[in-house]
Amino acid sequence: MQFLSSNIKVDLTHNKIKHIFLRDAEFTVIDTQASQDAIILVDDNPLECDCRLYDFLRYIEGRMHPKVQNYFHIIPGNLTCQSPDELKNVRVTDLNSKTFTCVLKEPKVCPEKCDCFLRPEDRAFIFDCSHKNLTSVPSDIKIIGFFNNIPGLQLLELSDNALQSIEPGTFDNLINLLFLNLSENHLTEPRSGIFDELVALKSLDLNTNYMVKLPEDIFAKLKNLRDLKLFRNNFTNLPRNLLRNNMKLRIFTLFENKRNMTTLPDAFFANLTKLEMLKLKRNGFVTLPEDLFWGCTSLININLERNYLRTLPRYIFRDLKGLKILELNFNDLQSLPDYIFLNTEHLVKLDLSKNRITSISKYV
Q1: Of 76, 94, 112, which residue is a domain's last?
Q2: Which residues of the chain, if any, have pLDDT below 70?
Q3: Into how many domains does the chain fold?
Q4: Are 239 and 285 part of one and the same domain?
Q5: What phi-psi label fits residue 207: left (phi over 0), alpha (psi between -120 and 50 degrees) or beta?
Q6: Which domain holds residue 279?
Q7: What InterPro entries would the database entry show (predicted)?
Q8: How many CB atoms lie within 10 A of CB 317?
């Protein structure tokens, strides 16, 4: 929009403007020597907050080129979104360009049974295939090479379906995927290798399935994994070296297992130096190995409540100098070994309520 007068005020309020598209303006204005200082009012218009809104959000936040910011002054006032439904009546000034996502309607990109979104800030794609009653991964996703043209796919939601298995090769080529959610399905024994190509993956959610066992190497290639959720499954045991290669793991969640596990393997978490939080309640644990947490020097929070623990090994917390929260309530503890908390010098919450403790040694 260009005007002969450089100080003009243009009132476009109460019209039927659906889009404010500034992408071309950034390239055009940078190359011009002119400066207009025009003021443009755009309040009370039926704005469609689709992907084209992104550059206007950048403009509002002052994130466009300085020449664009100074060329004209668009005043949004109380301008609100009229669509899509999830953004209806939301003020555009309350949206953040860095986290803004918009509906992607291109059939060549979006699988037929999924809802797809784009985060323009980093060109990240988000595919939401959850709640679709799927018994298998959509056929157009399973085609080898389907994702070759979508290197920006970062989040894939497949939760709350009826998936019973994942075919080998399904996730091949997803080298930039950061988040994968397979929770609330019917998975029982996922195969070795199905996650091997997800080299950038940071979060994997497998909660609320029917898994009874896992291959020891199923997570071996996920060297960037930070968050792993395995709660509400049917495990009776887990492989000792299941997490051996996940050296960046920070949060591990395994609670409310549908079968009693009684214990965990020796050194199961040992030497995971980035591990910060463990959620291990309601699993039926009766005993725990002494070296379970050895080398976990960053561990801050452990929740072991509502198990059947009767005692704990003397040196189980040996290396946990940074531990702040330890929840052992609702177990069957009768006593605690002397010096068991000797090295937990930063502990601020210790919950031993609802146990069977009759006395505590002064050396604990």
Answers
A1: 94
A2: 1-6, 26-27, 30-36, 107, 139-151
A3: 3
A4: no
A5: beta
A6: 260-363
A7: Cys-rich_flank_reg_C, Leu-rich_rpt, Leu-rich_rpt_typical-subtyp, LRR_5, LRR_dom_sf, LRR_TM_domain-containing
A8: 25
